[in-house]
Amino acid sequence: MVSGAHPQQVRQLFEQVAPHYDRLNDLLSLGLHRLWKRQMVQLLQPKAGEAWLDLCCGTGDLALLLAERLRPKGMVLAVDAAEAPLQRARLRAASRPWLAIDWQLGDALAVDRPDGHFDGAVMAYGLRNLADPARGLCELRRLLHHDGRAGVLDFNRTTGLPAVLQRQTLRQVVVPVATQLGLQSQYAYLEDSIDRFPTGAQQERLAQDAGFSWARHRPIAGGLMGLLELRC
User: Fold this and answer.
1) Does domain 7-156+197-231 have CATH number 3.40.50.150?
2) pTM here?
3) 3-state secondary structure of 6
4) Angle, helices 7-29/32-44, rounded to nearest 10 degrees
5) Class of residue 215 by CB neighbours under 10 A (exposed 0-12, middle 13-18, buried 19+)
6) pLDDT in tens, 71-89
7) Confidence grade of residue 15 (pLDDT, cut at 50, 70, 90)
8) Half-sphere exposure of 115 (CA within 13 A, CB side)
9) pLDDT band at 3 (very low <50, low <70, confident <90, very high)
10) Which of these, 129, 123, 69, lies nearest to 99 by C-alpha position?
11) pLDDT band at 108, cuts 50/70/90?
């Protein structure tokens, strides 16, 4: 088993940060996290009428993007283990009632859907927070049909100068900003979670072991982030 996060601690963390989550993400990434998510969706090419899964959906950025692309007749199942982010996601979606999104509180390692149910899946900043990332990739593969595709966006565990810059950014920018909002301990967790996270090459091997026929991890944002593209 690949070393992962403690489920209860992660759930509590996201329950606490939910009111500030979107604003902090915009501030700390200069809004670029939205661009990276759009790029991932564009790469995966969701088609109208398909069924897609957003695992660890948070406050709903990707689910909303996907649902717009899947109209008409397509749908998104958006799953998260914490209720507070889901509540914010539902509020955001309420202004767009024409979007077919099912918001579900649940475990990303045991999604209540049959094998091969989805055409595609996405996960943003979730794989790193699972108790077992390898099992998370196995669950993704189980839920996709034989020609499904998936994308996983997250911090990139790297070496050299990018790793130094990433660590400095976390310590000198992310944690101080979070501290001003009373969230120092929650965002200090980021560095530990990245240190435990599989590297890009390791993620590719884990995905192939999970049954994906093709896996490619590529650094983005100067190596600070990584995008894992998967094909069944």
Assistant:
1) yes
2) 0.87
3) coil
4) 110
5) buried
6) 999 999 999 999 999 999 9
7) confident
8) 4
9) very low
10) 69
11) very high
- H/E element holding 9? helix 7-29
- Side chain identity at 207, as an amino acid letter? A
Return the structure tokens found at 217: 């991890």
**Nearest to residue 80, comparing CAs of 60, 54, 105?**
105
CA distance 97 to 177: 34
Domain ranges of the chain: 7-156+197-231
| Maximum separation of any 2 CA atoms in the chain, in Å | 47
Closest CA to 181 of 37, 25, 65, 9: 25
What are the residues facing 79 on neighbouring strands?
Answer: 55, 104
Residue type, 124: A
Contacts of 137 (CB under 8 A, 6+ apart): 127, 203, 206, 207, 210, 212, 230
Per-residue pLDDT tens digits for 110-138: 999 999 999 999 999 999 989 999 999 99
Give alpha helix (H) positions in 30-60.
32-44
Instruction: Please provide residue 85's backbone torsions phi and psi, each rounded to the nearest 5 degrees.
Output: -60, -40
C-alpha closest to that of 186 among 19, 34, 57: 19
Q: Residue 14 above 70 pLDDT? A: no
Report how far apart the first and last C-alpha atoms of the chain are (Å, whole number): 22
Residue with tokens 């072991």: 209
The pLDDT value given to residue 145: 96
Sign of CA dihedral 203, 12, 40, 138: positive
